[in-house]
Specification:
Strands 1, 2, 3, 4, 11, 12, 13 and 14 form an 8-stranded antiparallel sheet that branches. A 4-stranded antiparallel sheet has the order 7-6-5-10, with no helix packed on it. A two-stranded antiparallel sheet has the order 8-9. By secondary structure, it is of the alpha+beta class. The protein contains 7 helices and 14 strands. α6 packs across α7.
Length: about 325
């Protein structure tokens, strides 16, 4: 016979406490979520709107500082290492066209001399500045002028009319003549073959002559004879022969060597020295025509005479 079930009695104290704890758990969780900081609710790497807003604001605050640093670094590089230069005239066509940008190495001539055939940027002497190849009118507005000056310094705007870009034909001690019987310029008696770089007219299919003006110049020490590749459009050393120093410019005025075209992309290319300036005997002739060369020429026979006297003395002993 089955015993009757014992009726459920009133809940014990422990059961009541357990019931209260179980029922309060969800309420305490919601309360914790409501009072938790945003960073706690954005667990798992999720970025909150407030955080994204602060991040965007921080970038715009730092942007002017980043631009300032970039400008300072660009100006330091331009001052000591490399400068971009805007081509303002057609005096160097077809090698360089109006609007081209070239990079100028400002360090190279601090460790070596200027070489023939190199394209250089230089500050024109006073007589050159009085008759510039082009005129640059800066904006009258101070703010516009400020940005124009920065653009000119960085090579994105027209440079000062005081700066020129030409090819070096003769260095100190060179004897430069125009022209020989075949119409060629000679340096130290060696004719230059300039067909690879002189201006070629795409319309007439004619190449300009090396020079329509005759000259006979011995370049003084520490100076350079320079000419543009478009000889008919270049106000170069030939135009300043009567200004003093036979139209040459001082080497101290040289800013640097143009070594590469960088803009526009279709004109990109290096600016190497033409082969004609590497011909044998060109530099040697200049060396022996200079005071240093004459000194060596005088020292050689004296050295031979000294050796002969020494041999005679040894023979006498």
């Amino acid at each position: 016979m089955t015993s009757p079930e014992t009726p459920a009695g009133p809940p014990t104290a422990d059961e009541e406490n357990a019931h209260v704890v179980d029922g309060a758990a969800p309420e305490s969780t919601e309360s914790a979520d409501a009072t938790a900081p945003p960073s706690s609710r954005a667990a798992g790497g999720t970025t909150t709107p407030a955080h994204r807003k602060r991040k965007g604001t921080s970038f715009w605050k730092e942007l002017p500082f980043l631009v300032l640093i970039a400008l300072v670094l660009a100006l330091l590089i331009k001052t000591f290492l490399v400068q971009a230069f805007y081509i303002p005239s057609g005096s160097m066509e077809n090698t360089l066209h109006i609007g081209d940008r070239v990079l100028v190495n400002k360090l190279v001539y601090r460790i070596r001399d200027v070489h023939r055939g190199e394209i250089i940027v230089f500050r024109g002497p006073t007589s050159w500045q009085d008759n510039p190849e082009f005129t640059s009118t800066p904006p009258s507005n101070p703010i516009a002028r400020f940005f124009h000056d920065i653009g000119s310094a960085l090579g994105v705007a027209a440079p000062s009319s005081k700066d020129f870009i030409k090819r070096v034909i003769g260095v100190g001690g060179d004897h430069v003549i125009c022209c020989d019987t075949q119409g060629r310029i000679t340096v130290n008696g060696h004719p230059l073959d300039e067909k690879s770089y002189l201006y070629f007219d795409p319309t007439t299919h004619q190449q300009v002559k090396p020079s329509l003006q005759n000259f006979d110049i011995t370049v003084p020490k520490g100076r350079l004879w320079v000419m543009g590749d478009h000889r008919d459009e270049s106000a170069d050393s030939r135009s300043h022969i009567s200004d003093g120093e036979d139209g040459t410019i001082p080497t101290k005025n040289v800013i640097g060597r143009a070594f590469v075209r960088v803009w526009p992309p279709s004109h990109w290319g290096t600016l190497s020295v033409p082969k004609t300036f590497h011909q044998a005997g060109l530099a040697a002739a200049a060396i022996f025509g200079s005071p240093l060369g004459l000194g060596f020429a005088g020292a050689i026979p004296l050295t031979l005479l000294r050796r002969r006297l020494r041999r005679r003395r040894r023979a006498a002993l």
